Amino acid sequence: MAPHPGGEEHVERFLTWLRVERGRAANTVTSYRRDLARAQEHLASRQSSLLGASGKELAEFIAALQSSGEAAASTARRLAALRMFYGYLVAEEVIEADPTAHLEGIRVAAGVPKPLTMDETERLLSSVTGDEPAEVRDRALLEFLYATGARISEACGLDLDDLDLRDRVVRLFGKGSKERLVPIGRLAVESLRTYLEDGARSALTPHAWRSGTDRTAVFLTNTGRRLNRQKAWDVVRTAGLRAGIDGEMSPHVLRHTCATHMLEHGADLRIVQEMLGHATISTTQIYTKVSQDRLLSVYRAAHPRATA
Q1: Which one of 19, 114, 175, 242 is the catalytic residue?
Q2: What is the C-alpha separation between 101 and 85, in angstroms, rounded?
Q3: Domains of the chain
Q4: Which of 151, 201, 226, 256 is catalytic?
Q5: Does the annotation mark 151 as catalytic?
């Protein structure tokens, strides 16, 4: 069977729809493009295409991914991209039936990261002790991530105009460019002031800016570019190693730790949902699962009839 014509055109229309109509972030659209290209490559090798694929051919594609050793989460994401693409094609009357309708879902183990204890958090935030500009920046970044529960993409995308250190709030742009205001704790504000006002950020600025987006960035690299996700991950990972924290340390662990500590200290679930920028409260509830052991221990210690 010859590849179906017009496939690339409809993929581009779909990606534009994702970005404009659904408000999906650039990184999400890029991931969908990559996933659809992977599927198209597989189908083309079998004389088929995205527009002409049958449910059986797509099931074989998913099976090939699973047998290749790809992580279940990655395969599940590719299947989700295909489902949304074909749902769009049906809605636009490009095809009559969705070939993914009868495909089985991919089981993905719940990957809730273990939050840091208060002692581990203190060690992490105290692990960067130097006064070099990059060290002052790293300290401010760590404090900011823990104080706000921001995603690493939100921290890297942060502009100077987004910060209000006087009123201790920050404007963050989450998934789908949704805007929200998040409070910043006093210690994080102090670290940000030190970084921004005592010369550390100025020392990182280049003689000539390479782009306007670099000029407005809060967090800069050693060469004066906007801090990217990879470098930010390195900052957090290195701090974790320096603090002697067991397990993989990542920005998401800090986000999870922020949410968990707030819930453990009495914060309302919906407040934490708003702060983290979750679309549904069910997502936020995942962060409460790791607190069940603590809940049981507190209950047994506090309830008059718990051990009677």
Answers
A1: 175
A2: 12
A3: 7-91 (1.10.150.130), 118-293 (1.10.443.10)
A4: 151
A5: yes
